[in-house]
Structure formats: C-alpha cells, structure tokens
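Structure (tokenized):
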C-alpha cells in the first residue's frame, strides 16, 4: 500500500471472519464473505494506478482470468458512511473450513485489540 492515499473509513455489506493462525501460517487475518449481509468496517484508499491494483490482486491471489481458482475475488461494492460511494473489496472464495469465528462487530481492528487484552 506504499504510496496509496488513505481516504477514510466506511462500511460495506458482508461478514468478516477471523482466519486463525496455523502451523503453516504464523498470523491470523480477516476474510470477507458476502453472506450473511452484515456491516463490515473498511479503510478506503486511493491507489496510485493500475500497477498497484495488479499487485494487490496478486497479494490476494485473485486472477481476473480465472476466478474459479482464485482465493479471493475482487468486486465493486457500495460504501456506506465513507469518503466514496463505491470501492473494490476482496471477497474470500476459498474453502469455508479455513474460516474461524464470525467477527460480529465487523471490525477487524477492534477484534484484534480485544484479543490482545489479558
């Protein structure tokens, strides 16, 4: 995201799941799915150009020419209460068994902070 401009926060429709640490992956991360249709807190960035979008696609294992084999798919979504009306979001399309707990708040940052408290 180096060089991208943070425009602010908003929410989008979907649900956020915690993908837990595993022996082969020493970190947890959030996974956005389309159902159930809750609200998910997002940060909205302006990218520097098409090259940055291509690099993000690679990071998210999204291949526009082969969505069926992609771990995530990029979709244009409505942004509520945010700095823009629409933005791209990456939706998880991998195996559901990889998903952990539903993050009911839809806020990954708050979820992570809660997990760090004694």
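Design, position by position:
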């Amino acid at each position: 995201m180096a060089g991208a401009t943070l425009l602010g926060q908003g929410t989008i429709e979907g649900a956020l799941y915690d993908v837990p640490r595993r022996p082969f992956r020493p970190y947890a991360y959030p996974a956005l799915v389309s159902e159930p249709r809750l609200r998910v807190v997002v940060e909205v960035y302006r990218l520097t150009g098409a090259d940055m979008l291509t690099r993000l696609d690679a990071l998210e294992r999204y291949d526009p020419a082969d969505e069926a084999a992609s771990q995530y798919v990029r979709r244009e979504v409505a942004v509520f209460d945010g700095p823009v009306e629409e933005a791209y979001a990456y939706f998880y399309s991998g195996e559901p068994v990889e998903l952990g707990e539903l993050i009911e708040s839809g806020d990954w940052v708050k979820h992570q902070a809660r997990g760090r408290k004694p």
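Reviewer-requested clarification: The chain is about 15% helix and 40% strand. The CA atoms of residues 7 and 45 lie 5 Å apart.
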